């Protein structure tokens, strides 16, 4: 259901419209659009992409379709999902980091992994990991207290926090020894190898590009590092008869409910890499954007603080933090971590009245979908009230921060719990203020990243 006609804004609060990059001209040439994509994919779309139901274009020799209607999205991602697969470019960019883990696996391998991992991410299993989340967050709050009044880089702080949570929930140990190396891998890959080059887009997957050769070298170093983390965790052992205390023990004990099959060592390594990377990078980015928005909206920030203070020390259930969670969900609308989902047709089809041929490309962009003028009222405005209990919910296929369908993010509940608790703790402890008013613009490089890290000032509440 469209919510374009519904005004969720409270009358007392001035609308906050966070800055975005200038839109591209609708008549931009193919080469111009390719250059724009390499610089910032988010800035490669024109007005039509925010207004039309479907935008038809070309991707080299094949047609491309930007899909902005829930019915078309449902068709591609659910009803006829077997006909739509990841593109060679997407696999090229993600496989060196994630291997054959859940995010990239297909067919029987994906079904085995999904069935096997599912018990580790139930609400009950996630609840056992909350102490890890809270301990890392409390330490971050204590660290930030030592810099009260001085400029602080909250993006770096959120990356450190999310990495600590990832390490503790995965392995039950702090990331002090390994965190710097892991961040080094992430930054190195994002800087040098994550953006597709022309040959990455042009050549079939079986034909290595110069970037692929560099990615293969990176892959060898990365898998050795993940192997060292797993070895360190195995050395720590597990108390006899004790229940699983972290995701590693849950995954080690996991069995496919249909076949009884466990993960091989290689599969376990790819799952660990997927969970750490997908978990810490997206959560850190979401927390940064939430704090950036709140620094510009003092009323919303104070409302979170009041909500937290009413609970006192009992901040453990996100159901008791409805406005904090609404702020996070609105942040994920404005800055979806996965800003683009790309699928290639394996065979002919019809989508939204258009004939689809083999190799045609479907673009489902949460960045566009979440800001589409037909689907949202005031789409560019920060309005957390959209997601409060009792508000009319968006169409299930108009809001995709974690994807949708069989391949919806398995860690969605984990991520919402982690980020909501962390945001509550931080805003409950500090008033957050921007020092530099230069606009922070989102750029699309694998995830929706800020173009720079602005300095913040924290004062104690």
Number of strands: 12
The radius of gyration computed from the alpha-carbon positions, rounded to a whole number of angstroms, is 22 Å
Oligomer status: single chain
Q: Percentage of helical residues? A: 40-55%
CATH architecture: Orthogonal Bundle
What is the gist of this entry?
This protein is an alpha+beta fold. The chain has 17 helices and 12 strands.
Describe this protein's structure.
The chain has 461 residues and is of the alpha+beta class. It has a single domain (30-460), classed as Cytochrome P450 (Cytochrome p450, Orthogonal Bundle). 48% of the residues lie in helices and 11% in strands. The protein has 17 helices and 12 strands. The protein has helices at residues 30-40, 48-51, 70-79, 88-98, 107-117, 123-127, 130-145, 154-171, 179-192, 198-202, 210-236, 247-253, 265-296, 298-311, 322-334, 366-369, 412-429, and strands at 54-59, 62-67, 84-85, 151-153, 341-345, 349-351, 354-356, 361-364, 430-434, 442-445, 447-450, 455-460. The strands form 4 sheets. Strands 1-2-8-5-3 form a 5-stranded mixed β-sheet. Helix 7 (130-145) runs parallel beside helix 17 (412-429) and helix 11 (210-236) packs across helix 13. The longest helix has 32 residues, at 265-296. The radius of gyration is 22 Å and the shape is globular. The two termini are 41 Å apart. One of its GO terms (molecular function) is heme binding. This is Cytochrome P450. It comes from Rhodopseudomonas pentothenatexigens.
């Amino acid at each position: 259901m469209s919510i374009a006609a519904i005004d969720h804004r409270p009358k007392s609060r001035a609308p906050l419209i966070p800055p975005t990059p200038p839109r591209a001209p609708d008549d931009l040439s193919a080469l111009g659009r390719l250059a724009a994509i390499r610089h910032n994919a988010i800035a490669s779309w024109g007005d039509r992409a925010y207004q039309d139901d479907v935008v038809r274009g070309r991707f080299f020799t094949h047609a491309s379709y930007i899909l902005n209607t829930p019915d078309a999205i449902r068709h591609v991602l659910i009803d006829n999902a077997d006909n739509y697969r990841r593109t060679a470019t997407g696999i090229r960019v993600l496989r060196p980091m994630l291997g054959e883990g859940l995010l990239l696996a297909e067919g029987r391998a994906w079904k085995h992994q999904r069935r096997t991992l599912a018990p580790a991410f139930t609400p009950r299993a996630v609840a056992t990991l909350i102490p890890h989340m809270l301990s890392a967050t409390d330490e971050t709050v204590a660290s930030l207290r030592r810099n009260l009044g001085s400029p602080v880089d909250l993006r770096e702080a959120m990356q450190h926090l999310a990495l600590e949570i990832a390490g503790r929930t995965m392995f039950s140990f702090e990331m002090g020894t390994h965190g710097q190396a892991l961040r080094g891998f992430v930054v190195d890959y994002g800087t040098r190898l994550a953006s597709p080059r022309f040959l990455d887009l042009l050549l079939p997957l079986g034909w290595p590009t110069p970037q692929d050769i560099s990615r293969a070298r990176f892959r060898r170093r990365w898998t050795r590092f993940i192997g060292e983390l797993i070895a360190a965790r195995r050395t720590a052992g597990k108390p006899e008869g004790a229940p699983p205390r972290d995701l590693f023990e849950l995954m080690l004990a996991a069995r496919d409910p249909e076949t009884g099959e466990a993960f091989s060592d290689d599969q376990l390594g790819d799952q660990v890499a997927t969970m750490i990377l997908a978990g810490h990078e997206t959560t850190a980015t979401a927390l940064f954007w939430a704090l950036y928005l709140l620094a510009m909206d003092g009323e919303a920030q104070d409302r979170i603080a009041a909500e937290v203070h009413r609970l006192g020390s009992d901040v453990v259930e996100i159901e008791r933090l409805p406005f904090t969670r609404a702020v996070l969900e609105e942040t994920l609308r404005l800055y979806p971590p996965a800003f683009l989902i790309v699928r290639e047709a394996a065979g002919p089809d019809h989508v939204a009245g258009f004939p689809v041929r083999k190799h045609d490309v479907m673009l489902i962009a949460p960045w566009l979908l979440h800001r589409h003028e037909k689907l949202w009222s005031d789409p560019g405005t920060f309005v957390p009230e959209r997601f409060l209990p009792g508000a009319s919910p968006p169409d299930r296929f108009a809001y995709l921060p974690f994807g949708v369908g069989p391949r919806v993010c398995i860690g969605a509940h984990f991520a919402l719990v982690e980020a909501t608790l962390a945001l509550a703790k931080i805003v409950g402890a500090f008033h957050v203020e921007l020092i530099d008013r230069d606009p922070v613009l989102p750029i699309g490089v694998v995830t929706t990243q800020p173009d720079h890290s602005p300095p913040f000032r924290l004062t104690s509440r």
